[in-house]
Design goal:
heterodimer, A: 289 residues, mainly alpha, two-stranded antiparallel sheet, 2 strands, B: 323 residues, disordered C terminus
Chain lengths: 289, 323
């Protein structure tokens, strides 16, 4: 029983990260109908920023975290301007736009490899290494931070999207860009903002996992795939479904590696995604009627 | 009619005969083994790109997981070749490629657009993970080595070139004839509009599955030929970059054109050779090429040339009485 709970805690930690990535992925998907294969590169850059700010520059957390989020937002806005907007303006078919995001992912990860080298870069946890004990269970402060930050981000994002005017313009643009333009929303700015917001959250996710899994320039595509799987399993129609999907995937992964074997865990996750795609194409939590 | 058409029909025939003879003569040139190996790589890339062009260029079904079929071909060949020799090994690889593509296509091809992109991407990653983890079969990260090529008991070495280019010629002729057939036109209707294809009586499920299986078989053939050339297979060879490369080749050359994959594959094989300094950055160069082509010439090189030449010919063609 205790093992089981311990595995659940580990699963919730990785699941939170997958969920955060999935959430940022669906945020862009819902605003632009574009599955952004470059999403994982934001996570990779977040981990790299964490290595730079915490490791190399040794900045305190209250300076470094806002800086990382700010850098993420700028990266996201630039990404939209360089890789997405020109394709959309030229009226390219969606599949070409998707391929352009793959090209973007290749370019960003390989540039990062030139700058940072291909080795894995580890950093110590910003929250200490002494496990917190709750009765017979224990949890590392970094894991707790991941879970808490994920919950806070999810709630803040939900409030932002449903309670503020700017947030509602993002939702409105996603539902119907032409109607949004007709009521006076500047769609091009909303797109930049959506990418900035999405990338900011993704870089934060990257900074949070850097101490758990080492940062490396080619980690992005794996992160993107985990994010896709999370959002497909949960449902692409709503960012919160993606978050739940991420938790399901994370918990499944750790339970399988805990009780069966860790070696085929990725294949099983991909199998889970295929099953969901075929049986419930709009996700476990989406509307499948 | 036939008298008027014959010079237009014999000229391409002449051109192809000359190209064929030139290719046959290459191993007799006084060049080292390295240029021959580069030629072989180009030929293998052509087969791989043709395989993707059939399923994406003509049928409109994107795949970001073709490295999976390439890997299946490579491993099937590496496992069988020491016992059966070269040709049966290639046939086994083709068979396995078609079989797995058929099995995986059955669920995958129900997906559309970017869901298919994700599903195939996941397939490619899953195959690489399997190759890494299924140590008993694949040797895990250490891989499997392949015996040097022999044909009828004779060691091939430099003449392996003929095997590779013969396979490439077959793949090319097959794909060209296929897309001109009734079945090929059905593929292209599916690409334009699946509902229209159904309304016209095309069995879209079976058609897509068949082209996916054929594409998987060709990709596996490319993988097997590569395994023989490389004498070694290991999971590291079959990463995401390998799945992206045929997509870049097809888009650069011109997707949905018979010559597009050939042109794209030759350029992308020779480019890293020409730019020796960029050897370690060739994936980065791929990324930039893909982006620039998608943005500025989405119809690819062959598409660009043929649309330019048809607009140049437009006047005389329309002026002449057509029938």
């Amino acid at each position: 029983m205790s093992d089981f709970v311990q595995l659940l805690i580990a699963g919730a930690t990785t699941g939170s990260i997958y969920g955060l990535i999935g959430l940022t992925f669906t945020l862009i998907y819902n605003a632009t109908k574009l599955p952004n294969f470059g999403q994982g590169e934001f996570v990779m850059l977040g981990a790299m920023f964490a290595v730079l700010f915490f490791g190399t520059l040794a900045l305190p957390g209250y300076v470094a975290f806002p800086l990382i989020i700010l850098c993420g937002a700028i990266v996201g806005a630039l990404y939209q301007q360089i890789f997405v907007a020109p394709m959309q303006r030229s009226g390219a078919p969606l599949i070409n736009q998707v391929m352009a995001t793959i090209a973007a992912a290749i370019i960003i990860s390989n540039l990062a490899a030139i700058v940072a080298g291909v080795r894995q870069l580890g950093i110590p946890s910003q929250f200490g290494n002494d496990a917190l004990r709750l009765g017979e269970f224990s949890i590392l402060p970094q894991s707790l931070a991941v879970i808490v930050v994920t919950a806070v981000v999810a709630i803040a994002l939900w409030l932002f999207l449903t309670r503020t005017t700017i947030g509602m313009t993002i939702l409105a643009t996603g539902y119907n860009p032409i109607a949004a333009q007709l009521v006076g929303i500047r769609v091009s700015s909303v797109m930049i903002m959506t990418f900035g917001l999405s990338a900011a959250i993704a870089t934060l996710a990257g900074a949070l996992i850097a101490p758990i899994i080492a940062a490396s320039p080619y980690m992005g595509i794996n992160m993107a795939v985990k994010g896709f799987i999370a959002s497909i399993v949960g449902g692409m129609s709503n960012p919160s479904f993606a978050l739940l999907g991420g938790l399901v995937v994370g918990v499944c992964e750790t339970l399988i590696s805990g009780y069966v074997s860790s070696s085929l865990n990725e294949v099983i996750t991909l199998g889970l995604m295929m099953t969901v795609l075929l049986a419930r194409p709009n996700g476990l939590f989406g509307d499948n009627r | 009619m036939s008298a008027a058409a014959s010079p237009r029909r014999t000229r391409p025939f002449l051109v192809w005969t000359l190209i064929g003879l030139a290719l046959l003569g290459v191993p007799f040139l006084k060049i080292g083994n390295y240029p021959i190996e580069v030629m072989n790589s180009a030929a293998i890339s052509i087969i791989f790109a043709i395989s993707l062009n059939l399923v994406y260029g003509y049928c409109g079904q994107i795949s970001f997981g073709h490295a999976g079929f390439y890997a299946i071909g490579g491993y099937a060949f590496a496992l069988v070749q020491p016992y059966t020799g070269l040709i049966p090994g290639l046939l086994v690889a083709i068979l396995f490629g078609a079989l797995i593509a058929g099995l995986i296509g059955l669920p995958l091809l129900r997906l559309r657009g970017h869901y298919l992109a994700l599903g195939t991407l996941a397939f490619g990653i899953a195959i690489q993970v399997l190759a890494l983890q299924w140590v008993d079969l694949t040797g895990g990260p250490w891989g499997i080595s392949v015996d040097p090529a022999r044909l009828f008991g004779i060691r091939l070495s430099r003449n392996y070139y003929y095997v590779v280019w013969f396979a490439t010629a077959i793949a090319f002729v097959l794909s060209v004839n296929l897309v001109r057939s009734r079945y090929g036109r059905a593929l292209q209707i599916i690409r334009e509009d699946e509902a229209v294809a159904q309304a016209l009586g095309v069995n879209t499920v079976l058609t897509k599955l068949a082209i996916f299986a054929l594409s998987g078989a060709l990709a596996a053939l490319a993988g097997a030929l590569y395994a023989q050339q490389n004498l070694f297979v290991t999971p590291a060879l079959f990463g995401l970059g390998l799945s992206i490369s045929p997509v870049v080749m097809v888009v650069l050359g011109g997707s949905g054109t018979p010559l597009g994959p050939v042109v794209g594959a030759i350029i992308l094989t020779l480019l890293p050779e020409a730019l020796h300094r960029f050897q370690e950055y060739h994936v980065l160069v791929y990324g930039f090429i893909l982006l620039i082509v998608l943005r500025f010439m989405p119809q690819g090189i062959v598409g660009l040339i043929s649309s330019a030449s048809s607009s140049w010919r437009k006047e005389p063609v329309n002026a002449a009485p057509s029938r």
